[in-house]
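Hey, I was hoping to borrow your eyes for a little while. I've been puzzling over a protein and I'd love to understand its fold better. The fold is given in discrete form, as structure tokens running alongside the sequence. I'd be grateful if you could look everything over and explain what you see. No rush at all, and the record is pasted right below.
>
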Amino acid sequence: MPIATVNPANGETVKTYEAMGEEEIERRLQLAEATFRTYRTTSFAERTRLMHRAADLLDEDRQDIARVITTEMGKPVRQARAEAAKCAKAMRWYADHAEELLADEEPAAADAHDSGASRVLVRYRPLGPVLAVMPWNFPLWQVVRFAAPALMAGNVGLLKHASNVPQTALYLEDLFHRAGFTEGCFQTLLIGSAAVDDLLRDERIKAATLTGSEPAGRAVASTAGEMIKKTVLELGGSDPFVVMPSADLDRAAEVAVDARCQNAGQSCIAAKRFIVHTDVYDAFAERFVAGMKALKVGDPADEETDVGPLSSERGRADLEELVDDAVRGGATVLCGGERPEGPGWYYPPTVLAGITREMRVHREETFGPVATLYRAGDLDEAVLIANDSEFGLSSNVWTRDEKEVDRFVRDLEAGGVYVNGMTASHPAFPFGGVKRSGYGRELSGHGIREFCNITTVWHGA
């Protein structure tokens, strides 16, 4: 895939870039290794100052970088500005909390004495250069939620971003440099996917994090496993959105539309499978379909647009194949389902009902504004349908019954359970999945410690 900005609203190529050659990659690896030796010893106070400065600059740049994101991958400009604001918030959160999160821990004195020690400490030390392989769908946020904790922990970062968002990738390197971070602290590598394997095999790369597809995750995990390097993977998702009879149906349907169609539905944690108790199925479906039909699809640069184009022609074709397969298998199209005329890679908000296990749309992730509706006879069936997926990223449940909440929290196979609300990442809470949605955690204290050497310091009596 060429490294290029191609506007998904009209298919026009805006700018192309040459991939970095071996000599430039080597230069950047050497710089990362050399920078880490000194950056790792900087104080938390200095890292905090730099990270706050980066957040301030991002706030100043918000409008401009939002336009770049909209041009590169089609996100409605209002949502792109919100993404930039969220990134600045996360930077400040880690700047303010990293020292506390990575403070030395002292086990109980009795346990220290039992081991024959006078004192034992657990210390968190940085690992070194970390390679980040990041996707296009949240081109700022996905990177910042790695970069902010990694840099605050004393690591340095090398970014291999998606090939369709090169301007955003270069902006991120420039942002950290303008903030005062030493040049080698955060570098963007304009390279194709084929170059990732060699980087993972390089001894100077100490760990890797990837957000992306399951095949990409398998490839990175395989090589990293061979090289015995730590990885964190956040892969696909097919999150359930369960609605029980006690739910506030108006609110549930309103949130369901946002949960499915934010970023044109191109989100791993977007709700995708809507599992509704039979007693309220018809009432919810009516509200949900009406909400999906009411969304404004159009130019992502327009402030009034709700749903922009999909990021690529291939992405739209993949989504169409899933819908067509479901229709051939007997699914009912309640709204949408047909490609609009005209330029750009648009696809309408779509709701499918009558889904069976044989349909691809039941098994595969729908990366676009397509929702599937399921009817559940009771709580047990709702749990079974929700867990009938190879993915386990997050989940949403709507009920006012605390016993039902307890059951869902206990039995849903997911990295998160959001009750009467929509899944959303926040810097203070761990984020990640189970099953084929990956492993490890981003954000919170769990995320910043993923790329630390957790060191036991034992003092003899």
About this structure: The radius of gyration is 23 Å.
